[in-house]
Design a protein that fits this description.
The chain contains five helices and five strands; from the N terminus they run H-E-H-E-H-E-H-E-H-E. By secondary structure, the chain is α/β, with parallel strands linked by helices. Helix 4 runs parallel beside helix 5. The chain has a five-stranded parallel β-sheet with strand order 3-2-1-4-5, sandwiched between helices. Strand 1, helix 2 and strand 2 form a beta-alpha-beta unit. The chain starts with a helix and ends in a 6-residue tail after the last strand.
Length: 151
């Protein structure tokens, strides 16, 4: 009989965690690593990524930082290529990058609204297209999309 650790093992899998330098997705990156997955931490802050990677590696996991403008299809295609070059596969994609606004709702400008929608919606759709197409081609994979009302 398999143990829970064996049943839920991600050994040999690769998780790409967009937003992995943040709190919520950073914790998810650590969880994937603890379950045995290699983790691609995607974010904008190399210092935060290093702190997260150091913790993962100290706990026996494997993680690598990738910087990416997730609102750019070309940048996301390059991210996929870079992750495949480093880890050889992609099994899990977490879309967790996001921005919000401290501006009261009735005062949000069109420019601010466009920035929020570009990061929180366009970035997710593009990543789903690029990584989803790859996963369909390999006939396996999971995509997890997250939203948050706070940084």
């Amino acid at each position: 009989m398999k143990t829970p650790a064996e049943i839920f093992s991600l050994k040999g899998k690769v998780a790409v965690v967009i937003g992995g330098t943040g709190e919520l997705c950073g914790a998810m990156a650590e969880g994937f690593a603890a379950a045995g997955a290699a983790v691609a931490i995607v974010g904008r802050d190399p210092a935060k990524a290093k702190t997260r990677m150091d913790k993962i590696e100290k706990d026996g996991g494997n993680a690598e930082f990738f910087s990416c403008d997730t609102t750019s299809k070309t940048a996301l295609q390059q991210l996929l290529a870079d992750v495949l070059k480093k880890f050889g596969r992609v099994d899990i994609l977490v879309n967790g990058a996001g921005v919000n606004s401290p501006t009261p709702f009735f005062d949000i400008t069109e420019e601010e609204f466009d920035r929020i929608m570009t990061v929180n919606l366009k970035g997710v759709v593009l990543a789903c297209q690029i990584f989803g197409k790859h996963m369909v081609g390999q006939k396996s994979g999971s995509i997890i999309n997250l939203g948050s009302a706070s940084d």
